């Protein structure tokens, strides 16, 4: 798969030949005559230089021009779009144009090059907060250059409901909660993390209870058994950073981290995974 790095300029002209002028940072050139796609080398100094070498990459029906303008910095989106087009016809190279007139292309698109990152989070809220935040970061282009795909792994807390259940807080809207309701059952079911259990025991010392740990780091439910690299969140700030579960590398953000901290965590994880 060929995918120009963000700093490599892709030019477009009606036609091209050796000796013609090109911008100094041009690495690829698309000629509408044909059409043809070339890797180019130039000689000279200054902003405009002379085309020294043209290496043909694709031409004719091998090239398709995507009809709509898209975010050309969202690499995963471009690979997905190019892959669908390549499956439908003979084109193996798709040219894209962005709202800012930026031109790029994908040749021989390979979705397997996109790094999958599992997102382990709880519901409610719905959508889960971490998944919602990552979607927002993708939509505004903050993570577009990373070539990643987020795979939700959602644990629905409603599955643990029973007449004696108590959830961590009323914000979840699930019913009785430790922050707003007295524990009146003889053997309550506490659904939460270690902090939830500590709060329960502080108010009910020595009381018999059932505890279901839904902290993504320690939970044994199948939704929180990652099959690949993952990101999750925890209410204990000391757990923030790199981690591992089920032999898979991951990263933890704090429950109160905002979009900026989450974006930095994703970049840290991707850097580790790609070396």
Report on the architecture of this protein.
The radius of gyration is 26 Å and the shape is elongated. With 275 residues, it is an alpha/beta fold. The mean pLDDT is 92. The chain has helices at 75-88, 129-139, 194-203, 259-274, and strands at residues 9-13, 21-23, 26-31, 36-43, 48-59, 63-65, 93-97, 103-107, 115-123, 148-156, 165-166, 189-192, 210-213, 230-234, 241-245, 248-254. A 5-stranded mixed beta sheet has the order 1-3-4-5-2, with no helix packed on it. It has a 5-stranded mixed beta sheet with strand order 10-9-14-16-15, with helices on one face. A 3-stranded mixed beta sheet has the order 6-7-8, with helices on one face. The longest helix has 16 residues, at 259-274.
